[in-house]
Amino acid sequence: MTAAGRSRLLALIPYDTAVTMADLGRLSGLSRPTLADMLHRLQAEGAVLCEPAVASGGRGRPAQRWRRRPPQGMFAALAFSRDSVRVRVASSDDRVFAEREARVNVALDVRGALDAGRRLLHECLAEADSATDSLTNLTLGLPCPIGDGGQPQPRGFLPDWVGFRPVEWLRDWLPDIRISVENDANLAAVGELVEGAGQGCRDLVYVKLAPGVGSALVVGGRLYRGAAGYAGEIGHVQINEMGHPCVCGARGCLAMELYIAARHGTGGKGGLLALTELFRRCDAGDTAAGRVLGRIGGQMGEQLGALANMLDPERIVISTADVPPHPALLAGIQDGIHRTALPPVGDLPVIPSPLGIRAEPLGGIALARGTYLTSPGNL
Ligand SMILES: [Zn+2]
C-alpha cells in the first residue's frame, strides 16, 4: 500500500458514519480484494474501526461496515473572508469549543490577516483550556479558488497573497498537524449541511453575496470542487459583454454587474455595505431600493436557474454574510430562477441562510473532522 493510496482511501472513510466495502469500492474504483487487504492493514495500525456486521433480513452475508477512528484532540478552523477572520476550535465530540472573530482587510494585508488569525487561535485554545500541541487537524478557508493539491489561486481575488504560501506559514508554526485548504463558500456550504439550511440535503447550491459572489455545489452529499478546483465560480459568468472590467480579467461578470448595480442604488456605497444599505432603505419603505434589490436578485436568479437546469438541486441557500438576506432580494432571485429554469426545476426552495458567515468556521471544523468528504477526484 503506497502512502498516497493509503491517504486516498482514508479520506473516503468518514469518522462518524460507517460505510461498507461496496461503498468504498464505488468511490475508490479499487477491486474488492485490494480494498479488503488495505482495510485490514489500516485496521491493524488502528486508523480504522470495523463494526460488527448486522443482519439486514435480506439474503446473503451481512456487510461489515468501516469508519475512521476519531483522532483524539482538538480541531481548528481558520476561516478568512475578504474583510474578516473567524476562528473556531472544537473537541472531537464538540463538547468543548471556542470561537472568535476580527475585522481585518484580508485581501490587501496578508501579514495582518494571518497575525490576527494566529492571535485568535491562541485565544480560542486558551478558552478551551488546550494548547497548540493538542491540535490534530486544521482547515484554512480562503476567499479565492483552491486549485489542485490545495494550492490557493489568489490572483485577482487576494492581491497581497500572490506568491505567499499560507500552508507553509502555518506549518512553520504548527508542524505536526494535518492542514487542509478550502474555498470560503465551500466551507460555508458544509456548515449549512451540518447545522443550517442544508441539513438532510444531498444536492445543494450555496450562494454567498458578500461582497463578491461565491457559490458552492454539493452533489450526492459530497462537496464538488471540479477538475481544477474552480467549480461554483458563478460570479464570473459574463452577463454583459459591454460591462465593467472585472478582477478576473474579463468584462461584465455577474459579480461586477451586481456590485455596480448595488452601488448605483445607494448613490456610491460599494459592496456589502451597499447591499446592507439597500436592505435598510427597503425596510423603511423606499420602493426604489426594493426595485434595485429585485433587479439584483433577478440577475442572480437567472444564472442560478441555468445552473439548476444542469444540476437539479433540492434547494438553494442564499447568504448575505453578516445580515440575513432581504425578502425583496430573495423574491427577485426566485423570479430570475423561474425565467430560466424548467418549471419543475424552477420551483425549488430558495432558503435564506440561518447561519450567515458563521457557517464558515462550522464547516471548517466539520471538514477538519472528516465529517464531510471532498470529491474523490480531488483528494
Ligand atoms: Zn470576473
Describe it.
- The protein is an alpha/beta fold and 379 residues long.
- The chain folds into three domains: 3-68, Orthogonal Bundle (Arc Repressor Mutant, subunit A), CATH 1.10.10; 74-188 and 360-378, Nucleotidyltransferase, domain 5; 199-354, ATPase, nucleotide binding domain (Nucleotidyltransferase, domain 5).
- It has twelve helices and 13 strands.
- Strands 6-5-4-7-8 form a five-stranded mixed beta sheet, sandwiched between helices. Strands 11-10-9-12-13 form a five-stranded mixed beta sheet, with helices on both faces.
- α7 (254-266) packs across α8 and α8 crosses α9 (287-311).
- The longest helix is centred in the last third of the chain and has 25 residues, at 287-311.
- The site of zinc ion has 5 residues, from loops.
List the helices and strands and how they pair.
Blueprint lengths: L2 H9 L7 E2 H8 L3 H13 L3 E4 L13 E4 L5 E7 L3 E8 L5 E7 L6 H18 L7 E8 L23 H8 L4 E6 H12 L8 E6 L3 E7 L2 E3 L29 H13 L4 H13 L3 H25 L3 E5 L7 H14 L2 H4 L3 E3 L6 H11 L10
This protein binds zinc ion.
Zinc ion binds next to loops.
Pfam family, one: ROK
Family: Belongs to the ROK (NagC/XylR) family.
Protein name: ROK family transcriptional regulator
